Amino acid sequence: MKAAKKPLSPEKALERVQLLCSRTEQCTADIVRKLTGWGIGHDNVEKIVASLQRDRFLDDARFARAYCYDKFNFSGWGRRKIAQGLWAKRVSREFTMSALDEIDEREYRKMACLVIKSRVPLIADALITREGRNKLLRFAVGRGYEIKLAIDIIRSLAAGADNEDNDEGMD
Question: The pTM is what?
Answer without folding.
Answer: 0.86
